[in-house]
Amino acid sequence: MRLTKSTDLALRTIMRLAVTGAEPCTARQVAGEMQVPYSHLAKVAARLQHLGLIETRRGRGGGLALTATGRTASVGQLVREFEGVGDVVDCEGDAPCPLRQGCRLRMALRRAQEAFLASLDPLTVDDLVASPTGPVLLGLVGRAPGVSP
Ligand code: SF4
Fold first, then answer.
1. Does residue 148 register a pLDDT over 50?
2. Where are the domains of the chain?
3. Least C-beta-crowded within 10 Å: which of 2, 8, 40, 127?
4. CB of 103 closer than 6 A to ligand 1?
5. Are the CB atoms for 72 and 124 separated by under 8 Å?
6. Where is it found, in Gene Ontology cellular component terms (predicted)?
């Protein structure tokens, strides 16, 4: 199962915000540190905010910050939110597969997909930023090369 770029960026964003705790940083700064287009990061951040996992603090020194909910969020749930719950194979697409009414492969893939997500359920965002990831992320803070539009 391959995650979309948006799901991966959502996880990277939330990990980045987790390492600096209560200190907010701007979406442009995070985009620069993660070396992704600002426009993509802004869309992902809006979705994370809608889910209550991050918040925007206004005013001088404001920016994005992780919420308490975000800090303890389940990685599996976050992946489900971003990926949806569709099949890993498009059995019903423009040219529906003739086996779809009784396909053991489809059932096996559904079980495998659920097992994959279930393995991520117990992990929290806090878990993801334990060493060695946290120190690597902290090393990126403040390093923001040219940001793509
Ligand atoms: S063979 Fe099974 S899993 Fe593959 S497209 Fe057809 S119904 Fe879906």
1. no
2. 1-86+124-143
3. 2
4. yes
5. yes
6. cytosol
pTM, two decimal places: 0.88
> With the CA atoms of 28, 143, 11 and 65 taken in that order, what torsion angle do they form, in degrees rounded to the nearest 10?
-60
- Which two tokens mark 47? 């979705």
Distance, CA 89 to ligand 1 centroid (Å)?
7
**Average confidence score pLDDT of the chain:** 92
Q: Using the mean position of ligand 1's atoms as its centre, give its distance from the Cα of residue 146 in Å.
A: 44
Report the top-level CATH class of 1-86+124-143: mainly alpha
Distance CA 25, CA 65 (A): 7
Residue 101: CB atoms within 10 A of its CB come to 9
- Residue with CA at minimum distance from ligand 1 atom 5: 91
Residue recorded with tokens 């540190």: 33
Helices (H), the chain: 5-19, 27-34, 38-50, 68-71, 75-83, 104-120, 125-128, 133-140
Tell whether ligand 1 has an atom less than 6 A from the beta carbon of residue 88.
no
